[in-house]
Amino acid sequence: MGSQFDFDAVVIGGGSAGYAAARTLVVGGARTAVVDSGAELGGLCILRGCMPTKALLHAAELRHAFSEAERWGITAGPVRVDVARMFARKDELIADFAGYRRQQLESGKFQLIREPGSFVDAHTLRLASGRTVTAGHFVVATGSVIPPPPVPGLAEAGYLTSDDALRLTALPASLVVLGGGAVALEFAQFFARLGTRVTILQRSPQILRDADPDVAKELEKALRREGLELFTGTRVLGAERTAGGVTVQFEHGGSVRSVTAEAVFHGLGRTPNTATLGLDRARVLTEGGRIQTDPRQRTSVPNIYAAGDCCGPHEIVHVAIQQGEVAARNILNPGASAEMDYRILLSVVFTAPAVATVGVSEREARAQGRTVRTASYPFNDHGKSMILGCADGFVKLIADAATGEILGGACVGPQGGELIHEVAVAMGRRMTVKELAVLPHYHPTLAEIWTYPAEELAGHCG
Questions:
Q1: E-state strands within 310-363
Q2: pLDDT tops 70 at residue 180
Q3: How confident is the model at residue 195, as a pLDDT?
Q4: Burial of 242 from C-beta contacts in 10 A (0-12 / 13-18 / 19+)
Q5: How far apart are CA 342 and CA 320, in angstroms?
Q6: Which of 177, 403, 411, 456 has the fewest CB atoms below 10 angstroms from its CB?
Q7: Is the same domain home to 44 and 92?
Q8: What Cα–Cα distance (Å) separates residue 75 from each residue in 2, 78, 338, 403?
Q9: Where are the beta strands (DSSP E) in 13-110?
């Protein structure tokens, strides 16, 4: 790599995507710097995303388990929730995770620059202090932020975000959740399981709008049974602060309704964190703030790459890490053929029941014109899940009708985020449903449930 620049590569952002890119660049011998101006080092996943939310969801699951124990003759007296201790335990865990990432970033393997910067041109970044940093290549990995809510009056009335919800010292008695995606649903169930009265308002005809309808409906059914009030196909009209808290007006089924709660949770998604980077000065093309990239993670400017939530198309941590590594490998070796492959795309919603998918959904496969066969099997007829008291949900396989190759799978049920990896491995080896059906599975286990739809499809495919 050339020496006419301060660095061979500068990575903007030290989260999961940025650190993966920087680590790969350093191992490849590139002179590398990481620019990260966050108040804390660690990135969204560790500080305000995956790890803290899953810690709290585990606490809520423990609380819920006590309510189910009496069926087994186990009683523990009144169950009390100490919110302060719960959140303190979450903070302890996150401090460990963040401390390790901070140690990695401060290891000296690359230069860490702790101030914001914006592009002057395709090879120059001006820092807040006024000095400039030049590089042969850049990797933009600045993640995403929560945008202002697109609901009239809500900014004035006040609302919670996922960031705010992780810092609470007391739980609201009632809550309106705006949105039906993964973050909104996970927080909705967390609050509900700890005693908050929760109402969910979703714009799309179903929660998890990109999921197959059977998948979404199964989770909707379980949430309603737990006492969450759920409205789909709504249009939120506005919000205002009233004597009872915050009142949200919405249209549903052709009529205008309202719901009042102590607090409102803004779960309507995130937006790329690119507004202050001066990407236009570097001639990097964006769409709605999202950086446009090719499968090599290269932007419209050949020496500038992007990875993670700032470019998408999937805001998932392991995908962000892969994107960062792909970008770095292509910088190190311009002749390389490193490209992102989303064939085995995994997605998990950590509700109960969990919702996990891999590959194409049934709806996507048919929309692409593929001839597929599908088969499902319910958990309420599966021995191990019945023992665990987990009767909700099912597993589903999507296979090519002619060859029997597994193209996708879905799991709505216990330990869905773990179980889905069996299908991911099968897809990685391009297995057919016949091969999966005859693969030995221990009994009784949750994992053996996959053999039932595989056996059904094996008789019809190929």
A1: 346-349, 354-359
A2: yes
A3: 94
A4: exposed
A5: 12
A6: 403
A7: yes
A8: 69, 9, 56, 53
A9: 32-35
- Overall average pLDDT of the 275-284 stretch: 97
Q: Which sign, positive or negative, has the C-alpha torsion 404, 407, 413, 415?
A: positive
CA–CA distances in Å: residue 20 to residues 12, 13, 309 = 12, 11, 14
- Cα(323)–Cα(339) distance, rounded to whole angstroms? 8
In this structure, are residues 437 and 451 in contact, taking their beta carbons and an 8 Å threshold? yes
Q: Is 424 helix (H, G, I), strand (E, B) or coil?
A: helix
8 A C-beta contact, residue 214 and residue 411: no
pLDDT for 42 equals 75
Element (H, E) at 201: strand 197-201
- What is the C-alpha to C-alpha distance for residues 429 and 73, in angstroms, rounded to an integer? 45
> Which residue among 214, 232, 266 closes a domain?
266
Nearest of 53, 135, 45 to residue 98 by alpha carbon: 45
72 lies in the same domain as 126: yes
Instruction: Calculate helix-pair angle for 16-27, 317-332, nearest 10 degrees.
Output: 30
CATH number, domain of 121, equals 3.50.50.60
Pairing of strands 263-266, 174-178: parallel
Residue 122 belongs to some domain of the structure: yes
Q: Measured between alpha carbons, how far is 121 from 114 in angstroms, rounded to an integer?
A: 21
Structural tokens at position 427: 């897809």
Whether 306 and 327 have beta carbons less than 8 Å apart is answered as yes
What is the dihedral sign for C-alpha 297, 292, 360, 21?
A: positive
Catalytic residues: 443
pLDDT 10s digits, 356-368: 999 999 999 999 9
Residues 300 and 422 in one domain: no
Q: What is the pTM assigned to this prediction?
A: 0.94
Distances (CA, A) of 35 to 112, 324, 361: 6, 15, 38
Whole-number Å distance between alpha carbons of 272 and 304 = 17
Range of the domain at 393: 346-458
Lowest mean pLDDT among 94-103, 113-122, 272-281, 326-335: 94-103
What's the rounded Cα separation, in Å, for the pair 158 and 153? 9
